[in-house]
Amino acid sequence: MNSSAAAPSINSTGNGPDSGNVKGFSYGIAFAVIILIVMSAISLVAYCTRWVTPLGSSRSRRRALMVADQQDEAGLAQATIDSYPKLTYAEAKKTTPAADECCSICLSDYRDDDALRQLPECGHLFHLGCIDPWLRRHLTCPVCRSFSVNTPSAEFV
Prior knowledge:
Layout: H1 19-49, H2 59-70, H3 78-82, E1 86-88, H4 89-95, E2 115-118, E3 125-127, H5 128-137
Antiparallel strand pairs: 1-2, 2-3
Keywords: Membrane, Metal-binding, Transferase, Transmembrane, Transmembrane helix, Ubl conjugation pathway, Zinc, Zinc-finger
Pathway: Protein modification; protein ubiquitination
Transmembrane segments: 25-53
């Protein structure tokens, strides 16, 4: 018996029929990695910039926002808070048809005889016992964050 059977040859140059598949696979992996890096960069930029909100053109609003951020105790004087409109829920339903049915601070439903305070800038209503302490510590509405200091007679603590 002659053992001259042809042994499979190994192509060391990499030019065989399977070398194209390896190159294509390598390019596919590289392309997928590049796409993942680009998507991660876009996600990071979107996450970091979502906290950036325009403060408006008014320097006083920007200053008031910085003061409110720097000092937890920044708020309105009680005399200014007392100057804001006070009404019962029954009156509020007549004058404001879209009035909320509950206080956004304590989440209790309003009764017709409850004393409420209406913020002048945004018109939101709250129980007196809920909004007064809030305004002594904060300059903004707890619902919409509009400034409640835009009245000329506003006094700060």
